[in-house]
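Q: Could you write out the predicted structure for this multi-component system? I'm mainly interested in how the pieces pack against one another.
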Amino acid sequence: MATKPVAIIVGVGAGTGASVARRFAKEYSVAVIARNPENYDPLVAEINSSGGQAFGVSADVTDSNAWQSAFNQIFKHFKDAPLAAAVFNPGGGVTWKPFLEITEDEFAVGLNSQATGAFNFAKSTLPLLLKSTNLQHPPTLIFTGATASVRGSANFAAFAAGKFALRALAQSLAREFGPQGVHVAHIVVDGVIDIPRTKEWKNEHPDAKLDPAAIADTYWHLHTQPRTTFGFELDLRPYIEKW
Amino acid sequence: MATKPVAIIVGVGAGTGASVARRFAKEYSVAVIARNPENYDPLVAEINSSGGQAFGVSADVTDSNAWQSAFNQIFKHFKDAPLAAAVFNPGGGVTWKPFLEITEDEFAVGLNSQATGAFNFAKSTLPLLLKSTNLQHPPTLIFTGATASVRGSANFAAFAAGKFALRALAQSLAREFGPQGVHVAHIVVDGVIDIPRTKEWKNEHPDAKLDPAAIADTYWHLHTQPRTTFGFELDLRPYIEKW
Amino acid sequence: MATKPVAIIVGVGAGTGASVARRFAKEYSVAVIARNPENYDPLVAEINSSGGQAFGVSADVTDSNAWQSAFNQIFKHFKDAPLAAAVFNPGGGVTWKPFLEITEDEFAVGLNSQATGAFNFAKSTLPLLLKSTNLQHPPTLIFTGATASVRGSANFAAFAAGKFALRALAQSLAREFGPQGVHVAHIVVDGVIDIPRTKEWKNEHPDAKLDPAAIADTYWHLHTQPRTTFGFELDLRPYIEKW
Amino acid sequence: MATKPVAIIVGVGAGTGASVARRFAKEYSVAVIARNPENYDPLVAEINSSGGQAFGVSADVTDSNAWQSAFNQIFKHFKDAPLAAAVFNPGGGVTWKPFLEITEDEFAVGLNSQATGAFNFAKSTLPLLLKSTNLQHPPTLIFTGATASVRGSANFAAFAAGKFALRALAQSLAREFGPQGVHVAHIVVDGVIDIPRTKEWKNEHPDAKLDPAAIADTYWHLHTQPRTTFGFELDLRPYIEKW
């Protein structure tokens, strides 16, 4: 029996990360990473009980040693199966406050949760992705962006600095690794995602929030694109969103 | 028996337009428009002989009267079936020459083939798309862009003027009609498409050209997005493309 | 006595165009063009009575023959003096209305007032600018943009189509003619300009509108940049403007 | 006698920083900061010996304590004179190598030299700039960008991450502090600057490199813009530069 390829998703909570894991688990084994096991334990149980194969590991991807150790555990667990897809989706780091009130630590968290975390994630996943060009779909590395990836709004300096840096990294990697057959993409999620925590927000239009399952379908679609036709950047938003 | 919804595609030749028609014909009746019937006759025959329903009309979409007459023929043929999707994909107007050698007529062709054509197309399709919000997928209006949609290169003034104007129109329509439930999207096709006419180009990498069938899969994917999660702009290019 | 070089400004009313003419008239002879002589007659009188040299001509720059005739008059008047700077600044074409209410003619006016007008203007001025690389400052061609040059807002389809097309043209010309020593620039004027017609608008902050004289200082600054250090695009807005 | 306002420039070597200091020293006292006193000592001597007032301090702006201490020295030296302009121009952090060879430290240097340094710089200068809205020109905070501010090229991941983050910060600060009367701007310097270290590069066109004195003239021009007419972003490049 052939070994199932692996998809790895960093940043799994109630929204995009969990839905991406569910979607990719239809075809692959999935490894899910969050700082807090509470964020992935129910998801791992759900996937494993419905015929999929999931494995959760707790790690802070901004800490390169901790992350590398988690990464090693994953491939020990999955017996060095090939890596088909890697999704970087950590949510942390959103600070909304006047600039002069942002502390050094808050700025560092905003910057590092995105930029340094993505650097560590790409450093460990790319060598494996480069070996997976013979799988059914081109190996894929997807970064989750936000409105703050393309717009530095007032009071969002820390988060926007991290998200802009993440987009720079995504562009640079797409240009370097695309020609080597790895599909690098960046998805700008522009709007509120429909998760338990946001249930009370903006309820004038009941369907005015991004559906994480629909977001995940788009991640999967990008993954299935052949290397002749790679999409790099797509912006997703609810129909009533102002932009 | 329920009436099959219609997809309408303007600009059908050997590449994107024909592949989009084939893809949408799996679910819908398709109307295909080109100036020259030679461009769609074989496609219409192919779709109709393989169980689909296609109808071709010859028209120049930059001529509002000629276009409106063609449009009326289509819905007479399809007995006022609902319009599910409209794709604007005319290829004309690429002029590559030093600016001082571009004639008034060439500039007008570059500008109008894209901007005026798209205006006429949107004026006739949007009223029908607005009535189709109860179909399985949100009604969708997709415009085909190019590298010249986001970059005015030397010697491409006429084509870039048209493609920039088209992108402006797409953004404006997305912001106005998105909240009314119509999905407006703009796809930047960045690279050479693999069609008979380009067979001889850039053959160092045999798979270095965009696959029109893969492009069409992405058009279809955008069409299936729910209105909670509309994608507006995606750029597609071959893995080895410099950008 | 050396012949004074000429600056030519199309689109002279109460705002940017008139201020640019006043600023450039400190160094050059200026030719000012508008459809309606009422728009430039007081300005021409003002400049001529204060020691400058101004000449006004009435023409519609979207009509290539009418424009060429006006252009010939200017250089007959100024005895074939060298052309140092050309500024394209027509204001027409702003239509703000729901897309389905925009008429064919309104769309054509929005598109042509910017794109076709700029094409005609560039076609006649560039051959002269190319001969002026020996003047004190590099010969300069400046296009006036707007918010609608970089954003297609709802209800602005016609104006945005024209302004996007104009920006495409500016980019293409900068890339083609920069290496030949002509400075091509595009200024995005983002906000309300302080002119008589706008006196009643937004008066919460008395200085919340763009000062046309300050805009003109920036046009002049760009003109004085050496060819080692050409600025292409700058956005100008009042300090309280939301963007 | 009125106290001369101060301009402060971080990142002073042979290029932009030194020229900006010379230009602003015509009107203001200038404080220049670099890690290595060798980078500013000759400049300080030059300005002081030609009638200006310059003061140099050695500091690493990415170290908030060291930076704050340097900052305090400056205003002790200049007896709490008002701060008229602050320019962030550190050059460090350019790493050009394949992504998988970039070390954690190199990535951190690229990111922090720009993003964290700019955060520290803005945190200390903005409270003083906010008090200077009564000076002749609006108080100004200018950040120096690069091609890598708007494009993540292959092999430039570390530098582009820092420069994108810096641009996010600049946008966010412009939107927050503009309405409070502080002019925040971002200049994209796109090309090779003409300094001793680059003398041997690209010498096909003898004037194909950015002139730091011309760059400085543009910084000064932006500083003199009134608050009705703030420029946010300008790109500067040599006339023959490909872009």
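A: Regarding packing and overall arrangement: The beta strands of chain D are 6-10, 29-34, 54-58, 83-88, 140-146, 183-189, 230-237.
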